[in-house]
Design a protein that fits this description.
- This protein is 52% helix and 0% strand.
- It is mostly helical.
- The longest helix has 33 residues.
- The radius of gyration is 19 Å and the shape is elongated.
- The site of zinc ion has 9 residues, from loops.
Length: 126
């Protein structure tokens, strides 16, 4: 991405991304809010304008949360046949914890992988 990338040792995109750290130096913060990417790394000054994971993290979170929570709810229903309020008390908070807990690490991971693999929009060569 930048001319000075070779000055930094390669970072694991999994380690930096899941921790929400800069994909180049592994020290600076990747996010300025909960899931808003920072404009620049405060340690190595990497321009994070390339960081656009789009809907990628949400898709993975929805698929995983749907599998985990719906699978658990179906298993509980088949095994115990509890009243409906039990489902609401257990699985509504579970959806929130899974979704909120996974969104930031997954977005960080996808941005770190985007940096590592130099993924960007296709352009026509002229
Ligand atoms: Zn950095």
């Amino acid at each position: 991405m930048a001319d000075t990338d070779h000055l930094y040792p390669p970072q694991s995109p999994y380690e930096t991304g899941l921790k929400g750290r800069c994909p180049r130096c592994g020290e600076g913060h990747l996010f300025k809010g909960f899931i808003s990417p920072a404009e620049r790394c405060e340690v190595c000054d990497l321009d994070l304008a390339f960081a656009d994971a789009g809907d990628g993290p949400a898709v993975f979170v929805i698929l995983f949360a749907g599998f985990l929570v719906l699978g658990s709810a179906l298993w509980v229903e088949i095994a115990y046949e509890p009243p409906m309020w039990v489902h609401l008390v257990i699985f509504l908070p579970m959806v929130l914890f899974v979704v909120v807990g996974m969104l930031r690490p997954l977005k960080g991971l996808l941005i770190a992988l985007q940096y590592r693999n130099k993924a960007e929009q296709g352009r026509l060569e002229r």
